[in-house]
Amino acid sequence: MRVHKLTFATLAVAAGLLLTACQGDDDGTGKSAPSSASSASSASSTGGGSGSGGSGSGGSDQGGGKDSAGKSPAGKSSGGQGTAAGTGSKESGKAGKCRTDELEITAKDRTIDGDSDATVVVELKNRGGHSCAISGYAGVDLKTNAGSLSAKRTGEQAPSTILKDGQSTFFGISYPFNTSGGSGVRITGLLVTPPSETKSVSLPWPGAATLPVTDGSGSPVKVGPIGSAGQGG
């Protein structure tokens, strides 16, 4: 009899445990769906916020991130544009000034019949292998049997010029004809100093052989700015 009571008691305990376990399973399943929905809702909310943030502040996130192929997305494209702009900036930057040693300087007589003054045109050709900037007035001195005679500037505005390799610019030297009937002042050579340079180039004088003697009140020789004369004078 005691054995039957123990058996029934054992069965009752086992049934109670089984019922509790079933209820626990029902409760877990019931909570699982809301939890999943909550997680999905949270993920959706997070995804939406990230998309909006990416659109609004793509500078830092997109610039540092990379896709599965190892390439940066929109940020890298922006960086690439910056590099290209930098290269363009270097190419379009200021050229260095034209140096005497990089210029081929020649002078020719370009006097035109009927003009009141004679003209010599000086050509400066860029032989430096790169572009250079030149502007202002060149220094011009005539060598004569009476000493050096410096040309006076005309006062014209001096344009700024960029010379590519192989390109030339010109300026004119004007001086009076010697119509005095006397021997005048004999010209023996020409000295040209490019603008902003201290090194000069000595050239043969291609113009008239003499200048009229003056009273010393001023130089009769005038020089125009760089770019003031064409190849024809």
TrEMBL record:
<dbReference type="Pfam" id="PF14016">
    <property type="entry name" value="DUF4232"/>
</dbReference>
<feature type="signal peptide">
    <location>
        <begin position="1"/>
        <end position="24"/>
    </location>
</feature>
<feature type="compositionally biased region" description="Gly residues">
    <location>
        <begin position="46"/>
        <end position="67"/>
    </location>
</feature>
<feature type="region of interest" description="Disordered">
    <location>
        <begin position="197"/>
        <end position="233"/>
    </location>
</feature>
<feature type="compositionally biased region" description="Low complexity">
    <location>
        <begin position="30"/>
        <end position="45"/>
    </location>
</feature>
<feature type="region of interest" description="Disordered">
    <location>
        <begin position="26"/>
        <end position="99"/>
    </location>
</feature>
<keyword id="KW-0732">Signal</keyword>
<protein>
    <submittedName>
        <fullName>DUF4232 domain-containing protein</fullName>
    </submittedName>
</protein>
<feature type="domain" description="DUF4232">
    <location>
        <begin position="98"/>
        <end position="225"/>
    </location>
</feature>
<dbReference type="InterPro" id="IPR025326">
    <property type="entry name" value="DUF4232"/>
</dbReference>
